[in-house]
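Researcher: Let's do a round of design. I'm pasting the structure tokens now; please hold your answer until I've finished.
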């Protein structure tokens, strides 16, 4: 049986380990800030994809 909508969804970004942060107040360049931005972008794109799939499967 083949899938009608084969979609390769990449895994979400990996959160950084606590030791990866230098605690020097890097601001937007902090590994945790970079992760939060990447995760927000991933979540938005994933949500758009789910919406498109739902629209395609609506009779």
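Researcher: That's everything. Go ahead.
Model: Designed sequence:
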């Amino acid at each position: 049986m083949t899938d009608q909508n084969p979609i390769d969804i990449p895994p979400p970004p990996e959160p950084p380990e606590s030791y990866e942060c230098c605690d020097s107040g890097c601001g937007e360049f902090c590994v945790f800030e970079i992760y939060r931005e990447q995760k927000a972008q991933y979540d938005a794109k994933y949500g758009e994809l789910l919406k498109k799939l739902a629209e395609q499967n609506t009779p």
